[in-house]
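U., I forgot to send this yesterday:
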Amino acid sequence: MIFDNIILDTAVLAFLGGCFGACLGGLWVFVLDGLLVLLGCAVVLAGGSDFLLLQIALGPLFGPQTTFLGGAFAASYAAGIRKNHPGGSGSDIISPLLGTSWDVLLVGGAGATACALLASAVIPHLPLLNRTDGLAVSIVIISLIGRFLFHREGPCGKKESIKKFGLLGTNNYAISWLPWLAQPSRLLIVGASVGCLAGASAMFCERILQPMVQAGSVAAGTAYVIPYIFFWSVSAVMLAALQLGQGATQKIPVTHGIAVLGAAAYLGSHSLLVAILGGIFGAFLQEFCARCFNNHGSDHVDPPAFVITLGILLYSFIPW
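Result:
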């Protein structure tokens, strides 16, 4: 590290990581982070160091709590305050923000700094919240703060929209976050398949890693993180289609939150059937969170982050 103080290290790295995330846009930088996580998992599974995974891909420099959050936070500010968002909407986390203004990029860095410090120095000491995924809950909290600061909206979004369509209403999917995924039949199929894939990935990763833990070549914490997050990273890389596609080619499912609940269900139960049920639960919970916290808002409050926060919190009370 450049400095000797871990808090200062985290703040500096997160600030610059958040500025970088704002330059590229939240979704694109999230795809890149997914690729780094996938590569980091592969390095450890092949017998290498966990440095790329834990210090770079999930750390304050490039983790989703900095780069993705920085991009989304900057987009909210650009649309709500500066009125210079290239797409015109704070919900647009696809457009890069480099061409906006210098303050938009710095606001992305400031949001990322707050999120990274919250995740590393505050959430672990808060009762209840320390039972869930620290990165996800920090992203949710800072995103909701940004919505209030930049759009003067509550957690659920615009009162007018809620009054007109109902909190869980979608106006026949016209205001849905992912209208091509929102139907219950599709949620059921996607949830089951992603839960199975995430659970199977966790199972195979665990089989490889446990002998390595016993041999002392891999830390026990790392051996839990990889099965937990492996299919999350695959799902994140999949979103390149959403970033680069147009029209019908963009209509892919967003599954990284669902994948975490499927993988965590397997790790708790060591049952693929439970992983499938966890994936189904995650898919419907994601749609619920989208309707409650994203559909009516003027900016992006990430439904997958909400899913991971609420789902892992609930899992923590289950006596597996």
